[in-house]
Each structure stands twice: as C-alpha cells, then as structure tokens.
Amino acid sequence: MSRDRSFNNFITQRQITDLVLRRVAEHVYDRPLINNVERADYVECLVELIMQSADPRWCLTETWDSWDVEDLKTGARVEVKQSSVLQSWSGTSSEKTKVSPRFDISAPKWVWAKNAQGKYQFVCSQGRRPSDVYVFAWHGESDKALADHRMASQWEFLVVPESKLPDQKSIGLKRLRKLARRCEYESLAETVLEAIPKDCSLLKVKRLVAADPCPHCPQDES
C-alpha cells in the first residue's frame, strides 16, 4: 500500500508541477505585450529555436553565462539583445510612442570560462566581449492594437559579428542598421551562421580562457 501511495503522490506532484509551469507560461508570456524582463527570455528562446532549425546542437546557456545561445559542436557564441517601441505599460493604441533604443554592447567584467584543467570558473574578461555574434531584435510596431511580441514575423533582426561593433558601451538603432545585416526570422539562422568566423581558432571559446593573464587584475606573487 505504501508503495502505491508513494507512486500516486509522485504522479500528483508531477501533475501539479506541470499545471504550475503551464500557468506561469500563460500568465507571463502569453500576452501581446510581454514585460521587458521576461521579453528578453522570450526572444532568447525564439532565437535558440530558430538556430536549432539549422542545427539541433544550438542551445540556450545558463543564466550566469555572459552569452545567450551557443553551438555545442564548435563553441560559437551568440549574444541576444532586444527592445520594443511598446512596453507592457504603454498607453492607448492611438498613442505613437517615439523611442530611440540603445542596446548594451559593453564587455562584462567577469565571464564563465574554462581553465587549462578543463574546469569552469569566473575570470576577468580583460575588456573583451565573449560572444562571436550579436543578434539585435527590434519590435517596431507602435500600434497597440496590432503589436504582438509573440509573433516572430513582427521582429526585425540585425546580425553583427562582434568584431564589427564599435568600442563603446552601447549603440543606437540607427547606427546598428548601418553595421548589421537585417533579416526576418525566416533567414535569421542563415545570417547568423554566415557571421560566425570560419576559422575556429578565432572563436571566443578559443581566445578567452581562464588561463589568460589579466593586466588589470593583481597577480599572485607567491
């Protein structure tokens, strides 16, 4: 009897978990205008799924990683940035919000990297960005009656190799459109793959490792 009860309890808990996860997804993401924080997660998942259409080895990274999507075969890294002309707190549909978005392109101070022994640890980025390609997603529909963040077709994607980004902390949409290859979601995977360095030795996974000395960090003299 106890074994049957344990099994039934397990099934019941599993069902409750599934219901809670479904409710969270509906409450947070299943709405035309997704809150700014959760919208970033949504767009990252969208980019991952699109990349998986080209190769199933593309996957989301962990929350502590300094990039968002990576290729498990080559180690190629993609950073995803997003913005929208309408926010979940925007006004009526008759309002035309003027937004001049700026995207963060600064190098994180610390990155999660593999050391010479094959173990991961946080290391100083030495002022270098750890991603190979940046994908900027812009949702420019300003009519609240039409705007829907869930629709992939409403997003404009701008793809830029990291090496072409200027040495500054942020960048505006106008300049991005001059640097980037613009595409719709149907051609995003192809555009990203073309932007990745063909020489694998140039990938950031090869160039930024925990064994690198950092000129900005105090060195252990012992």
Q: Helicity range of the residues? A: 25-40%
Overall body shape: globular
Query: What ranges have pLDDT less than 50 throughout 5 or more consecutive residues?
Result: 92-97
**Main sheet summary:** 6 strands, mixed
Strand order of the largest sheet: 1-2-3-7-8-10
Proportion of strand residues: 15-25%
What is the number of helices?
5
Radius of gyration, rounded? 21 Å
Please provide the ordered H/E string of secondary-structure elements. HHEEEEEEEEEHEHH
Q: Count every beta strand, where a strand is a DSSP E run of 2 or more residues.
A: 10
**Span of the ends, CA to CA:** 63 Å
Q: Kindly report the average pLDDT value.
A: 87
Structural class: alpha+beta
Keywords for this entry:
6-stranded mixed beta sheet, single chain, two-stranded antiparallel ribbon, 222 residues
